Every structure is written in C-alpha cells, then in structure tokens.
Amino acid sequence: MEQPDNDCHSLSRRQMIIGTAGALAAGSALTQFGGLLSSAQAKGGKPEKWPWPYEKLDPVKTAEICYEEWYRVFCGCAVINSVFSQLKDKVGEPYASFPSDAFVFLEGGMVGWGTVCGSPAGANIVANLIIGPRIAGATEGHHIANDLMQWYSEADMPVFKPAKPRIAIDKIVTTTSDSPLCHVSVGKWMETSGHPLKSAERKDRCARVAASTAYRLVELLNAWKDGDYETTADFSAVKEHGITGQMNCGECHNDVPSPPMELKKTLADSQ
C-alpha cells in the first residue's frame, strides 16, 4: 500500500497520470453527452426549441412502465424513461436521442446520499424539459415541479398498485414522509413496516413510489396540455423560513441556519 507524501501539495508521477487520465475521461464523457444533446435538439441542421413537444400519455400505462424500469435503473431514471420512452414513439426527436439512462445517479437520493428522492427529481427533469426553464419568474414547469415536491411529501406512499407486482403483498405498508428527502421517506417506511433496506419489500415499495410519481407527473402534464392546469402547491421555504429548504427541517435538526434579517426580507420579496 502506498504511503501519502509528507508534502500534501506534491503529487507523484503516477498520481498525475491518473489525474490527467481521469480529467480526459470526464472531458470525453461530457463532450459525448453534449453531442447527444445537440443531436437530440437538431433537425435538418436547425436547433429544436426548448421546451420539447408533448403528447398526452396514459398515467396507468406510464406508471406500469416506471414500475418495471425501477428494477433496471431505479427511481429517477425509471420516471424519466417511463415518459420519454413513450414520447420517443409518439414524437421522435428530441426524445429518441436523449440519454435517459445517464440519470441513473439519481438512485438513492443521488448515488445513495439520501438527499432529494430520485422520483420527484426525475419527474422535475421531465416537466422542465417539456414546459421550459425558469429563467425569470416562475414558469408552469416550475409550478409543476413544486407541486410534485409537495405532493410527494404529503401523499400516503406508495399510491400506485401495479397490475403484476414483483412480490406478493396483500396490502403494502404506506407512510407519509412530510419531506422530499430519500432518507426520510425510506427511513419512515422502514421503521413502520419493519423491513430493512435490502429487503425485497423495501425495493418493491420504492418501485411503487416511483410509479406513483410517474402517474402524478403525467396527470399534471396532461392537464397542462389541455390548458386546465392550475398549481396546487402552497409551500415556499423562502417565504416561510427566509432560506431555501424543505418542508420539514425540525424533525431531524434542532438548529436550522437562518440568514440575517435584511437578507431574509430580500429573499422573501424576490419570490
């Protein structure tokens, strides 16, 4: 086993080679990803408009696709694929070239770090690609993302029951997370159900949560497509706390950072 250099600022030749190779590999990956996005947004040499075209989907069919996809690429990627795989067939580009599987890192609240659950994170990627970016002020895509975060936090999860579940459960335990965070959502379910993280029951629960989120996402997108969409979210962390945050900080933290009063007012006024 190699010992670290006494001088923390010095690098061995081997470390430099590894670092350079890693940088080149990362650069190559980014270039390839950028090329895929460029091709996904181009037709006949002309850039496609963002947002991307949307055709209404069946929420039940989408949820079933998502449930099965979870067992291949987990939560966030499953939600994205459940929508984009269908739009690939209905619309074609830019969905046909979009590398949806690249978002597998959303699993476990971002590569297992337990932050925002991959299900609403993946749904928000879909909503913003279809409806558009929030550059100045709020767009309907931003509102749908906000709706999904609050809905996920308040719903008795999982909501959706697949037609052919992977494991036989007469009645799966449901819980309300009061949070969009993966470790809170999963942790509360594990505590209530008694099933550990690696159990088949916990895995199937998360597959159903992803499917539930995909179902809700398509409901909102369909309403938007019909011109009937109205936001349902009423939570604003900045207005309530003066700082960005989730709905429920106090359950885990005794002390939550608070900005100076003048900054708090500025943040609140900007919303």
Plain-language structure description:
By secondary structure, the protein is mainly alpha-helical. The chain folds into 2 domains: 35 residues; 177 residues, no CATH class. It is 52% helix and 1% strand. It has 8 helices and 2 strands, in the order αββααααααα. Strands 1-2 form a two-stranded antiparallel sheet. α3 packs antiparallel against α4, α3 runs parallel beside α6 and α4 packs antiparallel against α6. The longest helix has 32 residues. The radius of gyration is 21 Å and the shape is globular.
Salient structural properties:
271 residues; mainly alpha; 2 domains; two-stranded antiparallel sheet; 2 strands
Summarize the structure.
The chain is mainly α and 271 residues long.
Series of secondary-structure elements, N-terminal to C-terminal: HEEHHHHHHH
Number of strands: 2
Estimated share of beta-strand residues: under 5%
Radius of gyration using CA atoms only? 21 Å
Spatial sequence of strands, sheet with the most strands: 1-2
Give the overall silhouette: globular
User: What is the number of helical segments per DSSP (H or I, 4+ residues)?
Assistant: 8
Question: How are the SSEs placed, and which strands pair?
Answer:
Blueprint: H1 13-40, E1 42-43, E2 46-47, H2 59-90, H3 118-131, H4 140-154, H5 182-193, H6 200-225, H7 237-241, H8 261-270
Antiparallel strand pairs: 1-2
Helix pairs in contact: 2-3, 2-6, 3-4, 3-6, 4-6
